[in-house]
TrEMBL record, chain A:
Gene3D superfamilies: Pleckstrin-homology domain (PH domain)/Phosphotyrosine-binding domain (PTB). It comes from Trichoplusia ni (Cabbage looper). Residues 192-587 form the Myotubularin phosphatase domain. Belongs to the protein-tyrosine phosphatase family. Non-receptor class myotubularin subfamily. GO terms for cellular component: cytoplasm; membrane. This is Myotubularin-related protein 10-B.
UniProtKB/TrEMBL annotation, chain B:
PROSITE patterns: PPASE_MYOTUBULARIN, TYR_PHOSPHATASE_1. Keywords: Cytoplasm, Hydrolase, Lipid metabolism, Membrane. One of its GO terms (biological process) is phosphatidylinositol dephosphorylation. This is phosphatidylinositol-3,5-bisphosphate 3-phosphatase. It comes from Trichoplusia ni (Cabbage looper). Its EC number is 3.1.3.95. The gene is LOC113492561. Residues 614-624 have a biased composition (Pro residues). The lineage of its organism: Eukaryota, Metazoa, Ecdysozoa, Arthropoda, Hexapoda.
Length: 686, 624
């Protein structure tokens, strides 16, 4: 049943006779990929068949395959309406993958079964019959060169392996892209670039006992992987910081990231080094942190990876990064079956494989840590997160904690500001974690195995946790599941600089050499208004009217558990493994047997987009009736349209019976607070 | 665990949360913003206990400690009525430990510890429930303090074993609507277009003489006369001959159901049965084939030959294709759910949660049933071929499959009333042995006939709901309510095994139907996301009804564990799910605005009329 369903939209080209093949070869040469300004084709193969996912051997599409300095691009011979259906990206076609999104490349014999992994700079066999590309977002593309001119397969494989795994950071396409950039970021977003940005955050949180220091921007810098601005206890001197930094990994002394007006603050730090005075140095700093609390409450330290200093570790601590990477690889394996047989084999032991990957346990552990931290903060106790270099799990748990306690971060602008603060400004090493080359001279390059040891999907772990929160509190966030999934995709699109550097220092050096910064947050660079509309959660109502602006002070929303409701200040998540789910939209969207029309949670979204659209329409009609009294109004407007979108809309690879009228959904971009007046009528007790 | 303190549990906005110990039964505690006038169930309030009409307190035990596995021991008063077990803590701060458990859910009661047992709370009783939980009470060790309540509980929880009437016969509450009228067999057959050229309604079983576990009204091929039906009945196990379950409105392909043929080891044949099957096939002009879906695994079907049963041989039934659907028997399912209970109650072992789910095999069984129903739907809908479904007796797996396939094929059954009709028809009328499978009021807790077949089917329905959130008029809350009252014995609906027994015991006149209760508070169960045929308002054209047929994905990647049912006693697993509530608010707001717009437009027209203005012909482009 399922087998039949998934292939019915595709034509078989495999069994075409050799005669017609010859003819097609002629026309195939004409096919060209769409190129961006600065993009160059570096390899091409014609008469390539892209096999339909999980279709065994005989289904696919004819076309040409190109490797450019930006992407791997398949251009089909014939266009189909299917291609226009899914989320459209201005920069990438439906069958394109940015080179940095390529995870693993496998050699095949033309069919869907994997044969051998191709390693960067490794040997290339004389004849390449087929390639399988497993992308970092778990999409699998399988190409067969059985009908291609001889050598085409090998050429494209060489080009791909060469360009997808560049040796130098400045070979990334972001350095070549010539298109001018005109920023149009939302005004209420905080990029945490300059000291003033941090000052604004400090003021928003109303924390008077903390001060800004710019010492890290001077020659006395001690925390090289962080930006120039740090927030520290008012009582601590820059000199003390420099002294203490020697005792912390990467100089990561505890620094302020968030606080509440009542006094409790959230801090991040690295692990203590096992030097003689490190314990003293820590307690001195923690004493300063205590003094920054108006009630002089001592801070609570949370050891995310166990306390290495005292060598104690709890049962639910977060794993070393290499273990996280292994876990992720198992997850990828589970979500990228290449044949139907493998798909159903995995199905029969699905939970065992899922359990072995341990991914969901780590997700639950992060949420549990964040819940602990939020609990402490709600009790007005300052929390210090401590972990390794203080740039990985610290960022995950710190972000999650802030999502739990501060409604501002649950808006789209707030969420983006949060990532700017915790991941960009405080220097999560994206190059190392994503397996990209480091900027700088080749001498500094970490070689081979060492580089691989640094790779880990920490950002994905955070996005997954954020998705779990969204599942548990479907009305508390302004962004939708589609937004989070798109963000993960965009993290591997290296046109944007957001996730392209290890630290602010590297970025500043590049900018000094005329590198154009292009934040990924400018979603209009990639998506139309219609697609952007799907980033908004139709259930979200905001906290209070106009409370989503950054100027609102924290004290205006209470942190207690008393104020309940979807917009309550503190969210108390379910923190156990049994309460988390696999993020199907992100991980399983490329598996056609799972896709079905009118199925899945996306239907909730669409239904509510629709209801919102109608409410908006009615509101307009009402105001037009009352204001323009001479204008006649039509009975009930157009009849509601019923959408039957498939489960993985807008990422679905299968075609829906009826494409939704996306224009009608644009209204969801309108600020929800507009609705609140009439809404309050409904909330009033009867 | 401590973080879930009482104030949090009382947090009204998350009243949907399934909190551990408060009344489960039904979700009455889950009052939503749409709390109706029927939301209050209990007209009589005696002290702190809510009594139903006809309910009486039979025994009271003071100084009892309820050992809640989540919030710890709390001391209070235990009362037993003819309907429920009620515990109220003396400490008002521990009100979350209030219990109200219908005695119908009790499966077994045991004494724990003896008069000489050492240790705090070691002496008392333990109650094992059918709804995935156990309750422990500790009594004072002096004076055999538990004896009175224990004996009373035994008696009232197992009235059948003590020759007492079930509570449903004492329950007196009246509802505006009579749920016994929801299902009218002739009307339902008419809805499907029977009688027609090919199918006729027969009352041959009016006195339940041909088949005592079948309903009195059947639809059979018009070409089959009563003598043939009687002859076929002798060749089918317990006389359960193939009769119509559902007919496709356009293709006339049918789903028929029956029990296994009495083939035996010698391979007996029945010319009448063969002819009758041929008539069923002939009644569908679109296909020259009939699929016989045997729900059992092949090995079980073969093994049944030794007991005189078996399956249709393809030699004897020339145009029939036999397919085995590999669904296991009631004993396997009972064991599977038992393991699931171990996994979910009382504490969830986080380290072996996923492997535990795998080990119960519960989801794999669900997958098998869904996949089987999908095959039936595929044959009927896509190949216009009739399907005959049977297992051994045709009242367990057969009912699961036909009812599920009908739910996928016919949007009517996805409405609240249609769903009630479906249960009345495929489960109750066709004799699913509820009494045996649930063991209402019966103390033989280890009876091998007990099995969660119906609950498993409800789980399958929930899977469909999860996969197609807009296809059902009702929410999961209805399903949970049905499961609760499957055990509660408050309503007559699920009592007894067959229509015949129910008629003999005058269930319809002496008890209240569950549907009376549900239909009088429908708004609690309605799905605000429902986009049924009525939602468009227009004529029921196929375009306006995009989801006539549901084809679920039978993969474990999509089939989920129904935590809201199986894990609902665990406060750490509470679900925070305001989707429905928020959607209801949006929908209500829309309705309000629509009304306001209509009123304003009306005013407007009136004013213009007074002024003698003619409205401009075209509506403003604004609204298009």
């Amino acid at each position: 049943m399922n087998e039949k369903k998934l292939v019915q939209n595709f034509k078989s080209y495999i069994n075409v006779s050799p005669l017609s093949k010859g003819e097609k070869n002629g026309s195939l040469q004409e096919i060209k990929p769409k190129l961006l300004n600065g993009e160059l084709v570096t390899g091409a193969a014609h008469s390539v068949v892209m096999l339909t996912p999980l279709s065994e051997w005989d289904r696919g599409r004819f076309g040409s395959l190109f490797v450019t300095n930006y992407k791997l691009s398949f251009v089909p011979l014939e266009n189909s309406t299917t291609d226009e259906y899914c989320q459209r990206n201005f920069l990438l076609g439906a069958f394109d993958v940015p080179l940095t999104g390529v995870g693993a490349v496998w050699l095949t014999d033309g069919g869907p079964i994997r044969r051998r992994r191709l390693m960067p700079y490794g040997d290339m066999p004389a004849k390449v019959k087929g390639l399988q590309v497993v992308c970092k977002n778990m999409k699998v593309l399988t190409f067969s060169f059985a009908n291609s001119p001889i050598d085409n397969g090998r050429k494209i494989a060489l080009a791909l392996m060469h360009h997808a795994f560049p040796k130098r950071h400045d070979l990334l396409f972001a350095f070549e892209y010539r298109e001018p950039y005109y920023p149009t970021l939302p005004s209420d977003m905080n990029m945490f670039h300059r000291p003033g940005d941090w000052k604004r955050e400090l003021e928003r949180c109303e924390c008077p006992h903390w001060r800004i220091t710019c010492i890290n921007g001077t020659s006395d810098a001690f925390m090289l992987t962080a930006g120039e601005t740090l927030i520290v206890p008012s009582s601590v001197l820059d000199y003390n910081l420099m002294e203490s930094a020697r005792h912390f990994r990467s100089g990561r002394v505890p620094i302020w990231v968030w606080g509440r007006p009542e006094g409790a603050a959230l801090l991040r730090s690295g692990e203590l080094l096992s030097t003689e005075q490190s314990a003293t140095a820590e307690s001195v700093l923690l004493e300063q942190v205590r003094r920054s609390h108006p009630k002089l409450t001592p801070p609570h330290v949370i050891y995310l990876c166990g306390n290495t200093f005292t060598n104690t570790s709890g049962a639910n601590v977060l794993p070393p990064l290499t273990t996280l990477q292994t876990s992720y690889k198992k997850l990828v394996e589970l979500c990228t079956p290449t044949t139907l047989r493998q798909f159903w084999n995995q199905d029969s032991q699905y939970y065992t494989i899922l359990d072995e990957s341990r991914w969901l346990r780590y997700v639950a552990n992060c949420i549990a840590f964040a819940d602990d931290a939020a609990q402490q903060l709600a009790n007005n106790v300052t929390v210090v997160l401590q972990e390794g270099d203080g740039v990985d799990y610290c960022a995950v748990v710190s972000c999650l904690t802030q999502l739990l306690v501060d409604p501002y971060f649950r808006t789209i602008s707030g969420f983006q500001s949060l990532i700017q603060k915790e991941w960009i400004a405080l220097g999560h090493p994206f190059c190392d974690r994503f397996g990209l080359p480091r900027p700088g001279s080749p001498k500094e390059q970490v070689k081979g195995a060492a580089a691989a040891a640094q790779a880990a999907p920490v950002l994905l772990l955070f996005l997954d946790c954020a998705w779990q929160l969204l599942q548990q509190f479907p009305a508390a966030f302004q962004y939708s599941e589609t937004y989070l999934t798109t963000l993960w995709d965009a993290a591997h699109n290296h046109i944007f600089d957001t996730f392209l550097f290890n630290c602010a220092r590297d970025r500043d050096l590049a900018v000094a050499k005329n590198f154009v910064q292009r934040p990924v947050w400018d979603w209009g660079e990639q998506f139309s208004e219609q697609d952007k509309a799907l980033f908004y959660n139709p259930l979200y109502m905001g906290t209070k009217p106009a409370s989503t602006t950054q100027s609102q002070r924290l004290s205006q929303s209470s942190l207690g558990t008393g104020s309940a409701g979807p917009c309550q200040s503190r969210l108390q998540p379910c923190r156990v493994v049994a309460g988390v789910e696999l993020w199907a939209q992100c991980y399983e969207r490329w598996l056609p047997p799972l896709d079905a029309p009118a199925a899945g949670p996306v239907q909730y979204q669409l239904h509510n987009y629709h209801a919102r659209a109608q409410i908006h329409q009615l509101n307009e009609k009402l105001s037009s009736l009352s204001i323009l009294s001479s204008r006649q109004s039509n009975g009930s407007g157009p009849a509601p349209r019923v959408w039957a979108v498939p489960r993985f809309f807008p990422f679905s690879v299968s075609r829906a019976e009826a494409a939704p009228d996306l224009d009608a959904m644009q209204v969801s971009l309108i600020d929800a607070s507009q609705l609140l007046d009439s809404q309050s009528l409904l909330n009033a007790p009867d | 665990m401590d973080k879930h303190n009482s104030s949090e549990l009382l947090n009204s906005d998350f009243s949907l949360s399934k909190n551990a110990s408060s009344d489960s039964l039904d979700s009455d505690s889950k009052s939503s913003s749409l709390n109706s006038k029927h939301g209050q169930d209990s007209p009589h309030v005696l002290g702190d206990i809510h009594l139903l009409d006809g309910e009486k307190v039979m025994s009271v035990a003071r100084d009892v400690t309820y050992l809640c596995p989540y919030s710890g021991p709390s001391r209070g008063v235990l009362k037993v009525t003819n309907y429920q077990l009620h515990f109220r803590p003396t400490d008002t701060a521990a009100l979350q430990s209030t219990l109200s458990v219908p005695l119908g859910v009790v499966s077994r009661i045991e004494k724990v510890g003896g008069a000489s047992s050492k240790g705090e709370n070691s002496y008392g009783i333990e109650i094992f429930c059918k709804d995935m939980r156990n309750l422990r009470f500790a009594h004072k060790q002096e004076n055999h303090s538990r004896r009175g309540i224990f004996e009373k509980l035994q008696q009232l929880a197992f009235p059948l074993s003590h020759r007492l009437p079930m509570f449903a016969f004492s329950y007196l509450e009246t509802f505006p609507e009579d749920g016994w009228l929801v299902y009218e067999p002739i009307a339902e057959l008419r809805r499907m277009g029977v009688n027609n050229d090919m199918w006729r309604i027969t009352r041959i079983n009016d006195k339940y003489e041909v088949c005592d576990s079948y309903p009195s009204v059947w639809a059979v091929p018009a070409a089959a006369n009563d003598d043939l039906l009687r002859a076929v009945a002798t060749f089918r196990s317990r006389g359960r001959i193939p009769v119509l379950a559902w007919i496709h409105p356009s293709s006339q392909a049918t789903i028929t159901r029956c029990s296994q043929p009495l083939v035996g080891v010698s391979g007996k044949r029945s010319r009448e049965d063969e002819r009758y099957i041929q008539l069923i096939m002939d009644a569908n002009a679109q296909a020259h084939k009939l699929f016989i879906m045997d729900a059992r695994p092949t090995a079980n079907a073969v093994a049944n030959k030794a007991k005189g049963g078996g399956y249709e041989s393809e030699d004897a039934y020339q145009n029939a294709d036999l397919v085995f659907l590999d669904i296991h028997n009631i004993h396997v399912m009972r064991e599977s759910l038992r393991k699931l209970k171990e996994l979910c109650f009382p504490q969830i072992d986080q380290s072996r949660w996923f492997s535990g789910i795998e080990a119960t095999c519960w989801l794999k069984h669900i997958k098998c049933i869904l996949a089987g129903a999908v095959r039936i739907v595929d044959k009927v809908e896509n190949h216009k071929t009739s399907v005959l479904v049977h297992c051994s007796d045709g009242w367990d797996r057969t009912a699961q499959l036909t009812a599920l396939a009908m739910l996928m094929l016919d949007p009517y059954y996805r409405t609240l009333r249609g769903f009630e009709v479906l249960i009345e028809k495929e489960w109750l009328a066709f004799g699913h042995k509820f009494q045996l499978r649930i063991g209402h009021g019966d103390e033989r807790h280890s009876d091998a006939d007990r099995s969660p077949v119906f609950v498993q089917w409800v789980d399958c329905v929930w899977q469909l709901q999860q996969q197609f959130p807009t296809a059902f008029e009702f929410t999961e809350r209805l399903l949970i309510t049905i499961v609760d009252h499957l055990y509660s014995c408050r309503f007559g609906t699920f009592l007894f095994n067959t229509e015949r027994e129910r008629a003999k015991e005058e269930v319809k006149t002496k008890t209240v139907s569950l549907w009376s209760y549900i239909n009088s508070r429908q708004e609690l169960y309605l799905n605000p996301l429902y986009w049924g045929p009525a939602a468009g308002g227009g004529p029921a054209s196929p375009a306006a009804r995009p989801q006539l047929v549901l084809v679920p994905v039978a993969s474990l990647r999509v089939i989920k564990l129904w935590k809201a049912l199986y894990c609902r006693w665990n406060p750490t697993m509470r679900q925070q799910d305001p989707i429905y509530q928020r959607t209801r608010e949006l929908v209500a707001l829309r309705a309000q605005l629509e009304a306001a717009a209509a009123a304003a437009a009306g005013d407007h027209a009136a004013r213009q009329h007074r002024l003698g203005l003619t409205p401009p012909p075209a509506p403003s482009p604004h609204h298009v």
